[in-house]
Design goal:
This protein is of the alpha/beta class. It has seven helices and twelve strands.
Length: about 210
């Protein structure tokens, strides 16, 4: 029996979904089932034991809609746990390379230029991966991300005999895909994951985040 855990870098997945699935919403409740079904096409043991899906997301402090959806809907799905980290707002400025002019306010409306930094998502995911590995509770890790920051942790896990399967969007994250034991094409899974949301499952369309 091979114990399978799914790890999802929320924004890395969601922003690409918004680009490639159009107006269609993702059926997050079905995501682990669809991934595990696709795993069965790989040369793994037929006896796969799904242990759970962990989703790592960051939220702006005032984005209550997203936080509620993560904690009140997604967190309540069977076998799913969610780690929500608060983004930090930072004031920024822009500089013209030609004349050297700098400003910290919008030239159009005069409001301060502010951006939100995502902190802690990668470290939280890596920490959980290694805790499961060191406690001998993990045989196969499905990593839903294209972030190259995970390349070295993935190589370390595979050195311990743990198979890491990278579920990534086509053409993205080639370094991580090469480091993984196998890959799953998320673009091919879109038809299986599309769902028209309603009621408690509805959440706002995600804005672009850094």
């Amino acid at each position: 029996m091979q114990r399978v855990h799914v790890f999802v870098d929320y924004w890395n997945f969601q922003l690409r979904w918004n680009e490639r699935a159009g107006e269609s919403r993702c059926n997050w409740a079905s995501l682990p089932t669809v991934l595990i079904d696709r795993l069965r096409a790989l040369p793994l043991s037929d006896d796969l034991d799904f242990q759970g899906m962990r989703v790592y997301a960051s939220c702006d402090p005032d984005d209550e809609n997203l936080r509620r959806w993560l904690e009140n809907f997604l967190e309540r799905q069977p076998g799913t746990s969610v780690v929500v980290l608060e983004r930090r707002r930072r004031f920024d400025h822009i500089r013209c390379r030609s004349c050297g002019y700098e400003t910290g306010t919008c030239p159009s409306c005069g409001q301060p230029l502010v951006w939100s930094a995502e902190k802690g998502v990668e470290s939280a995911l890596i920490t959980d991966l290694y805790e499961l590995a060191w406690s001998d509770a993990l045989d196969v890790a499905v990593m839903v991300s294209s972030d190259s920051d995970f390349v070295f942790p993935v190589a370390g896990l595979q050195g311990r005999g743990i198979k890491v399967v990278n579920a990534a969007w086509r053409g993205a994250g080639q370094e991580l895909a090469r480091a993984a034991w196998a890959t799953l094409d998320l673009d091919e899974l879109i038809p299986s994951l599309v769902r028209e949301p309603s009621g408690a499952e509805r959440k706002p369309v995600a804005e672009a985040h850094a």
